[in-house]
Amino acid sequence: MTRLTSRNRSRLALPPSARFWLGLILALVLGYLFALAQGFLVRPPLVIGQDAVPPSGQAAGVTSTLENEDGAFIDIRPSGEVNALLVYYPGGLVRPQAYEWLGRALAAAGVQTVIPVFPLDLAVTGINRADALIRKFGEGKTIIIAGHSLGGAMAAQYARGHTDQVSALILMGAYPAGNVNLKDTRLRVLSLLAENDRVAEPDAVRDGLNRLPVDARLTVIPGAVHSFFGRYGPQKGDGLPTVTHAAAEAQILKAVRVFLNGLPAR
């Protein structure tokens, strides 16, 4: 066995210039990892009403407030009678105000929309957040749970265990997880597919219909991409749209309104 003498160690030692560059590279890598962690753990501010005007214009008398019931949530309610409660689970790492536009648009039809704020903006951290919101606001109302992307998958999981309370499910660029089967339920389901979505692949969304009731409705939003369901800007792997965001929102809103109008009264 060769002994590691001081002479041998000096031969293995890096020259000063190499140590400098190695230290610089290490510092850059650590800085990059720190920035990624900070961006993940420190979420952007939650600003109500910043960009919430719906495609058809601002409905009169709608209020949008930040409330707290077992956690923060945005409460969007019409000025008149409320006949339905929509609980909306945001997409993964998406701030909840990105979906405020939809709640304001639906308020004209007597729909109150509540959007929970999840830890780290991940609905998987609180799948049952809808419980407290339904207890607080749901009495005597038709209950709909909806969600985008990861939020949609978590909404489907919640609906699976609460078919006695939830009447309908709306999935936006989303589908039930492989172990969540809703086929034997009486839920009314609307599945919205963005035609050019490359995050929730069209084949995966269509395959998800096999785990939904046989009368589940699939509606394709022509030319749209994954991020067009919310207002948070483009995302990695989004796809390339062939329509404007505004045009896609108008189609999304039309499909949701038609679906809600077809629901039986509570």
UniProtKB/TrEMBL annotation:
<keyword id="KW-0812">Transmembrane</keyword>
<dbReference type="GO" id="GO:0016787">
    <property type="term" value="F:hydrolase activity"/>
</dbReference>
<dbReference type="InterPro" id="IPR029058">
    <property type="entry name" value="AB_hydrolase_fold"/>
</dbReference>
<dbReference type="Pfam" id="PF12695">
    <property type="entry name" value="Abhydrolase_5"/>
</dbReference>
<dbReference type="InterPro" id="IPR029059">
    <property type="entry name" value="AB_hydrolase_5"/>
</dbReference>
<keyword id="KW-0472">Membrane</keyword>
<keyword id="KW-1133">Transmembrane helix</keyword>
<feature type="domain" description="Alpha/beta hydrolase fold-5">
    <location>
        <begin position="86"/>
        <end position="245"/>
    </location>
</feature>
<feature type="transmembrane region" description="Helical">
    <location>
        <begin position="20"/>
        <end position="41"/>
    </location>
</feature>
<protein>
    <recommendedName>
        <fullName>Alpha/beta hydrolase fold-5 domain-containing protein</fullName>
    </recommendedName>
</protein>
